[in-house]
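hey so i finally got around to running the thing on that chain from the lab meeting. sorry it took forever, my laptop kept dying and i had to restart like 3 times. anyway pasting the input first so we r on the same page abt which one it is
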Amino acid sequence: MVSVLVSCEWLKEQLDAGAKGIKVIDGSWHPPVAKRNARAEFEQHHIPEAVFADVEAIKDASNPLPIMFPPPEQLEQQFSQLGISNSDHVVVYDNNSDVGMLSAPRVWFMFHVYGHTNVSILDGGLPKWIASGYPTVSGATSLSPTNFKASYNADAVYSMQALLNNCSSKSHQVLDARPKGRFDGTVPEANPSWYSGHILESINIPFTAMIDPTTKLFKTKDAIQQTFQQFGVNLDQPAVAMCSTGMTASFLVLGAYILGKQVPLYDGAWAEWQQKAPKETMKLGVRGCDLNK
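ok and heres what got predicted. didnt touch it at all, straight out
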C-alpha cells in the first residue's frame, strides 16, 4: 500500500535515484472561466519524466454530461497509451496555485475506480515543486505503450437512481463539495444554463475545506477529521459525495479515504440532478442566463 499523499522532496529523491516503476502524471485541468490550456502549460514546463493525462478526453464521450467515467475498455486504451502498467506506482499532480490542487484528486480517484490503488497525489503539485527549487522540463512527453487492464469498482460510483432511492431511504449522508454560494443558490453555476441550488438535506462541505489555506497542502489526518465534524458529518455512517460535475467531490472522497472510510462519488453530479431529478428533491437557485438578461 502506497502513501495517499507524497511530498515533492520524496518524488525528487525517487527520480534522482532512478527508481523503477514510478510513473508521474500531470493531470492538470482548468475550468473554462480560467481561460488556461493545461496541455500547452504542460509543454511549457512540467516535472521531469511526467506525461500529460487529458482529463477532458478520459471520459464517456457518448454521455452529454461533462466528465462521466468512460467504459473500462476505453480507459484501458487511454492508460495504455500513456505508458501506465498495472504494476506501476502512479504519482499524479496538477498545476493550481490558487488552491494547491484541483484535478489531481479526480485522477487519483479514477485510478481507484478502475482497480489501480497503487496511486499517490503529489501534495502541493507543480507550484510546490517549483517553489522547492526543483527543475522542470519543456516539450511533449510520451512513454512506450503498455497493456493496462482495468477492474471496474461499481461500488465506488453512485448513480442517479441510487441517489433517488436515497431520498427515501436516507441511508447515506449526501456531501456536496461546491462553493457555498452555488449550494445556497445565490451564485450561478459555471454553466449559465444550469440552476444552482442543492439536494434537500444534503450537507455542504466546500472542497477547499480539505486544503490548508496557509500551506496549500492537503490537511493532516487530524485536521480532516475535525473538518468533517465541524460540518456535521459522521463518517461512521455511510455517505456519498457530489459536486457540479464530479471533479471537486473527489476532494471529499480523498479526505474520507485518508481517514480509512470509503465514500462513493455521484458521477452525474449536480449537472445531471438539476436537469433530471424531481423538483421536489431539491432547492433551486439562480441561473447565469437569467441574470444576464
